[in-house]
Amino acid sequence: MDTTYTSPVINKKRATIVLIGLLAVTMLGGPAPALAEEEPPAEPPKVELVLDVSGSMRADDIDGRSRISVAQQAFNEVVDALPDETQLGIRVLGATYPGNDKAKGCQDTQQIVPVGPVDRVQAKAAVATLRPTGFTPVGLALREAAKDLGTGTTARRIVLITDGEDTCAPPDPCEVARELAAQGTKLVVDTLGLAPDEKVRRQLLCIAEATGGTYTAVQRADELTSRIKQLVDRAKDTHTAAPAVVAGKSACDGAPLLAPGVYSDRAAFSEHRWYRVPVLPDQELRVSVSMALDRPVNPDYAVLLRATATDGRELVRGVDAGSGRTDVVSAGLRWSGGEEPTDEASPTPDTGTTVEATMVCLVVSNAFAPRQGTQATPGMPVELTVDVVASSPAPTAPDLGRGWVLLVLLTVAGLLTGLVTGLLTRWWVATWRENR
């Protein structure tokens, strides 16, 4: 057994030497690598409920109860079931001015619960005090609700509950919805109608379509509660980064240069919008475009997406892509950089040398035609998704796509198959005769 004794002094000296060595290595090696920065926390989903409290909400035609009492019950149940991460606000219109002065009545909209983490007791108490009172300034309420929700990197949602059309236009609520959509902020307005009126239906449908939302006609109390809960919960699904606003040009020359990402634009009826994307030889370009039918258009319409070279030669033409929605028309395309001679040099990150990139021109064309009386401005909403990925490796020889090579291979295969079949047949016949 080893009984060697090590002095504590020697241990201290060794420890000191080791410590000095570690410090030297650290100094020679430069500063320690910085820790990766944590991603900032995502913004919470934000929703504002906008409730019509005008005089017509006194009507007792929903399950034998007044429209306002049904709406109050629905709000209470929604507040109780609200997900903790969702920030909710409540705005009302027509709730305070009982007089006949239209100028005053059409300014009657207030936020009774600010957008943020909800104090359930406070929110339900504020809703309980509402009494049907005045006019119906829907357009103004939508503008103010958009301000309540603010701006940011993620989507916002407004849920409008009303039983009548706007009685204060201008501003026309449908035009307000289009203005909000044209600002580039990802704002979705869902509408719920409490009265079976065709004018109300058309107005609420127009508001919803302009912002990519939905319209629902409500006839029962349980329908209202269920639908509001669905829309509030859906805010988590639309809680995504807002597309970057971009303005396409009328020609490829000078068109905006797009990196991988999601972009929003506006296109006039029957217009061509151009964009540019550089693609390296070992990359594949993938693009999709969607246009929303946010206003009445003639039934014959289409969207065409094409990729061209800078000299106008068409590289590939997109194909229609079904989205499952009747208010959106989509198309998509794929193109590999190795399919076209390059025309622009780009430095490679690994070697510092340059590799020629192809400047691809993207053009989005539409064949929309407005119906009689439809507003032409602002343009139709366009959403463009651009991605550039590593291209799939091309198959090596033999190249079965080339005509002569394929013909020769098929001929040789046929001859070999016939030869083997003949030999096997002769062997089988000879064996059968011997066994007889």
From TrEMBL:
The chain crosses the membrane at residues 404-429. Keywords: Membrane, Signal, Transmembrane, Transmembrane helix. It comes from the Bacteria. The keyword Nucleus does not apply. Residues 1-36 form the signal peptide. The keyword Ion transport does not apply. PROSITE patterns: VWFA. Residues 46-235 form the VWFA domain. SMART domains: VWA. Pfam families: VWA_3 (PF13768). InterPro entries: CLCR (IPR051266), VWF_A (IPR002035), vWFA_dom_sf (IPR036465). PANTHER family: CALCIUM-ACTIVATED CHLORIDE CHANNEL REGULATOR, EXPRESSED PROTEIN. This is VWFA domain-containing protein. It comes from Polymorphospora rubra.
